[in-house]
Amino acid sequence: MKITRAKIAYAAKLMLPPIAADALRALLDYVRPAAMEYLPSGWPEASRGWNVASIAKFHEQRWPDYLDSIKAISPLGIAPSVMRKSTRRVDVWDIINHNNLVSFAYVLALASRRHERLSMLDWGGGIGHYCALSRVLVPDLILDYHCQDLPVFCEIGRKNLPQATFFDVPDACFQREYDLVFAGSSLWYARDWKALLRKLATSSRGYLFVTRMLFINKNVSFAAIQRPGAHAYDTEYPMWILNRQEFLAEAEANGMRPMREFLIGHGPRIHNAPEQGAFRGFLFRKNN
Questions:
Q1: Which value, to the nearest 10 degrees, does the dihedral of the CA atoms of residues 128, 131, 137, 139 take?
Q2: Strands 165-167, 178-184: parallel, antiparallel or unpaired by DSSP?
Q3: Residues of 75-88 as b/e, b for ≥16 C-beta within 10 angstroms?
Q4: CA dist 131 to 165, 223, 288, Å?
Q5: Domain boundary assignment for the chain
Q6: Which pLDDT belongs to residue 250?
Q7: 3-class DSSP state for residue 244?
Q8: N-term to C-term CA, the chain
């Protein structure tokens, strides 16, 4: 099992007194820049972001292993960003991935109930991992899958999933409505997240599921920078850490009624942040 910075910090939180755990995290930050860091000045003017061909290539190389992992009877704990399946197994460190995928399975089953066909928008869906997962989870469902992402991802997605629809022109996906609109770990990378949430809500004629994002409860929403070097991503990108109540109020203002909240798991530590968040998901239903 690979020992990562996040695992060391999590183990320290469980086994050490708070003052000792804080000292260890401070030492890790000193030795190597934090994987996630608070941006007190707000959203940066420029960053490399997700438009990096090496990230898409990383997922393309692991696509066969991902397909094998979701077809197996083992727990749904393999995320698209992990190394090759042959080099690791699903264990307790994958509980966040497991909770995330099982939550998605619940939403998919609910949205497709009494339907032979389901139209789905996966905003920021990469090369289509959730399309393959959906077809395994509900094999009898006719899935009309649509994905909006950057051209480097859509090119690979079209090759692997020729029956799916991939949009690489900004906002092209919002020309129609969908039974299920899904944004998994993607909304928080949008600089104007409120405008994007409004578009997602407008394009849903049934359900909206926003999940696997860090939410806080006490402080106002703030920006952070993520350095995903542990996943072999040679980039960094800004993100929003949203206040839970602000997010819910914005969704309801756009005609979406909250149906279920999901607690996905503990979030990674954000260096110097005014508040640490937890991974959560929210399922909404269109007000009709």
A1: -140
A2: unpaired
A3: bbbbbbbbeebeee
A4: 10, 30, 27
A5: 1-32, 39-286
A6: 98
A7: helix
A8: 49
pLDDT tens profile 185-241: 999 999 999 999 999 999 999 999 999 999 999 999 999 999 876 555 677 899 999
* C-alpha of 66 from chain center: 16
281: tokens are 């998901």
Burial class (CB in 10 A: 0-12, 13-18, 19+), 106: middle
Per the structure block, which two tokens stand in for 125?
Answer: 């869906």
What span, in angstroms and rounded, lies between the C-alpha atoms of 81 and 129?
A: 11
The pLDDT of residue 50 is: 76
- Whole-angstrom distance, CA of residue 97 vs CA of residue 264: 8
Pair 145, 85: CB distance under 8 Å? no
Q: What 3-state DSSP class applies to 185?
A: coil
- The answer to whether 148 touches 115, Cβ cutoff 8 Å, is no
Cβ neighbours of 256 (radius 10 Å): 25
The residue with greater pLDDT, 128 or 54, is: 128
DSSP 20-35: HHHHHHHHHHHHS--S
What does pTM read for this prediction?
Answer: 0.87
Other Cβ atoms within 10 Å of 138 Cβ, number? 18
Helices (H), the chain: 5-15, 18-31, 53-71, 95-111, 129-137, 151-160, 193-203, 244-253
Residue 272 DSSP class: T
Q: Which amino acid is it at 234?
A: D
Q: Determine contact, residues 128/122, Cβ cutoff 8 Å.
A: yes
Query: Residues for the chain: how many in total?
Result: 288
Alpha carbons 229 and 79: distance in angstroms, whole number? 16
| Residue 162 CA: distances (Å) to CA of 25, 115, 152, 157 | 46, 23, 16, 8
Whether the CA torsion 202, 117, 100, 133 is positive or negative: it is negative
Fold classified for 39-286: Rossmann fold (3.40.50)
Give the tokens for residue 219. Answer: 């402080």
Neighbours of 212 (CB within 10 A): 24
